[in-house]
Specification:
The protein is mainly alpha-helical. Helix content is 32%, strand content 5%. The protein has 4 helices and 4 strands, in the order E-E-E-H-H-H-H-E.
């Protein structure tokens, strides 16, 4: 006669005291009046699904708002959060050509002005540097001023125009 493991259901020979499958002590089948492990005990029912009257979870609304340079209209910059002071835009543009435009949300325009100024300064042997700085500083000031006033400006527009 074989012994049955009450933990995993493995049937082992009479000479085993412990289950070869899981290591649990084996019981004598004459003393085991319990059901095998795969069957549920009497009176047990399977779990019922969640009641349809249970209210759904209440999640907070989406709080995400994109940065100003990722506005709904991809061709414009809106003054959502990042608005710098116009004088700071001028100082940063003077430090690095086009940086004021980049911080105003006109990133592509800032890189284009930076690359264009390097090429133009090379061609004109540096004569275009001062007029270029004056032009770009005025543009950075007027765009930052327009954003500070709550206006929407174009990503490639100059002097704060739409």
């Amino acid at each position: 006669m074989s012994k049955m493991c009450m933990k995993c259901g493995y049937e082992a020979g009479d000479h085993h005291k412990f289950c070869p499958g899981c290591g649990a002590p084996l019981s004598d089948p004459r003393s085991a009046n319990q059901a095998p492990p795969g069957n549920p005990p009497p009176g047990y029912s399977s779990p019922s699904p969640v009641s349809p009257n249970y209210p759904p979870p209440n999640y907070p609304p989406n709080q995400y708002s994109p940065p100003p340079y990722y506005s709904a209209n991809s061709d414009s910059v809106t003054p959502d959060k990042l608005v710098i002071e116009p004088i700071i835009a001028v100082v940063l543009t003077f430090v690095l050509f086009g940086l004021g435009q980049m911080l105003n949300g006109q990133v592509g325009k800032g890189f284009a002005l930076f690359g264009g100024q390097i090429a133009l300064a090379f061609v004109t042997m540096g004569l275009s540097i001062l007029p270029g700085y004056i032009f770009v500083c005025i543009d950075a000031y007027m765009c930052a001023k327009a954003l500070k006033e709550g206006k929407t400006i174009g990503k490639w527009s100059f002097f704060g125009s739409t």
